[in-house]
Amino acid sequence: MPDFAIRPRPVARTGDDTPARSLYRYVWRMSGRHQVWICLLAAAVASLSMVPLELQRRIVNDAVNQEDLRRLFWLGGAYLGVVPVQAALKYGLRVYQGWLSESAMRHTREHLSRIQECRGATRSDAHDGRAVSVIGAEVERLGQACRSSCR
């Protein structure tokens, strides 16, 4: 079983704790290469979603109307081959999106914990602690929204 299916991806520390200037830059920093793969996989799923419909149309219009048994078996076999491939790609896309989302959530939680530890060691400011807690709660809600949208 691939490693990404088991646990979130560890994000390497760069030593740069400055926040990203925009959401786009944050996403690219966290998962740029993976976003490209997700887009390619999504395009494959979208293009394969048209194939079963076209095969159904050809089965009815060509094979059944012309009473061509050989063509009916050939198109039916192609249909039975395409549907599981499409379903597997769709499942893989959702797992990949969930894995990437969990990786980003894990990294963000760990980053917030490090910030809180560093701030706690230098000064005891309750305002900073509350800010980290509020941001952490927002990150959790964002992660739940991402997980539900991947389903």
Question: Would you mind describing this structure in some detail?
Answer:
- The chain is 79% helix and 0% strand.
- Helix 1 runs antiparallel to helix 2 and helix 2 (69-122) packs antiparallel against helix 3 (126-149).
- The protein is mostly helical and 151 residues long.
- The mean pLDDT is 78.
- The longest helix has 54 residues, at 69-122.
- It has one domain.
- It has helices at 23-64, 69-122, 126-149.
Parts with pLDDT < 50 across at least 5 consecutive residues:
none
Q: State the end-to-end CA separation.
A: 21 Å
Q: How do the SSEs run, as a string of H and E?
A: HHH
Estimate the global geometry from the Cα principal axes.
rod-shaped
Number of domains: 1
Q: Largest sheet, described in full?
A: none
Give short descriptive properties of this protein.
3 helices, 151 residues, mainly alpha, 0% strand
In a nutshell, what does this entry contain?
This protein is an all-alpha fold. It has one domain (33-149).
SSE layout and pairing:
Elements: H1 23-64, H2 69-122, H3 126-149
